[in-house]
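Predict fold of ornithine decarboxylase; 376 aa.
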Amino acid sequence: MTDRIRDFLRSRRDDGPCMVLDLDVVRDNYASFAKALPDTRVFYAVKANPAPEVLDLLARMGSCFDTASVVEIEQVLATGASPDRISFGNTIKKERDIARAFQLGIRLFAVDCEAEVEKIARVAPGSKVFCRMLCDGAGAEWPLSRKFGCVPEMAGRVLEQAHRLGLVAYGLSFHVGSQQRNPLMWDGALRSASTIFKDLAERGITLQMVNLGGGFPTKYLKDVPAVKAYGQAIFRSLRKHFGNRIPETIIEPGRGMVGNAGVIEAEVVLISKKSEADTMRWVYLDIGKFNGLAETMDEMIRYPIRTEFDGDATEPCVLAGPTCDSVDVLYEKDPYELPLSLEIGSKVLIEGTGAYTTTYSAVGFNGFPPLRSYVI
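Predicted 3D structure, encoded as tokens:
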């Protein structure tokens, strides 16, 4: 919570839950990434928060951008950033979207299978491609599934196919899991990447780039290492596995760039119990899974919640959203400690919510509007 956010909330008209994001924090975060990994290009993951103000700021600061759709590409181009600062990082793309991206000047595409390579060869000839490898997400609070990537043994064959079809087999990528709190988790993937680099070099294909992905965390209830610790660990692994021939590297921070820049203000709608003998309170907010807090799914992300009654006696409670859907419960398996003095109508501040909240907010489910967003 910054003073700028606090002042904004104090003066705003109450019009339902909202997320307020402080651009000064984003500016500081970008500077930290650039300093921690000075020889690595930053490709901001637009999906984390595509607010025009965020994109404009990062474009002015020199950031590149990882995009997942043609719409995101167009949003970045609207800032004045050139197409060579954009990658189409989604491995699942319609052929017509690849063609549109190519028409807009995009020349860097992610793949994870030969069929995707063939699409790109047909409609984006001569482009650079990098193959995403499956990666162990152990230690991540939001582990990624097997939906994206292929086993390292297959990645080399995918890039060979790209080379045969006239594309530039540019490099490899991986993702160690979102909200990864262990800086050492990049080491195993870099070991696999170096093996593929060597194998393909023996076949006359010279890879140039390793995309280190995202995974850089923001602080929720648990402390996380500083960005500097990640930079140091990654550089040590690069030296260990690539020696003096370190490839070009890029990173794709999303949560780590904007997560701690945002705070959601919400309101307590109801406090109740399920029976006279029940000892567990249910606290219902005017925001839930469908209004921006989708990452509470399986209670993986536990946000810090502040109230005006902090310091009073607390008890665990079930925390839920306002919609008529039974899955709209935020914390029940591990109840959340909140003050006993909390009342209906009380405001709560949900911190660390600058990433994956406005973009996960449903459009009109149960008639509730999407989460309002203010960028200051």
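The chain has two domains: 23-259, 260-375.
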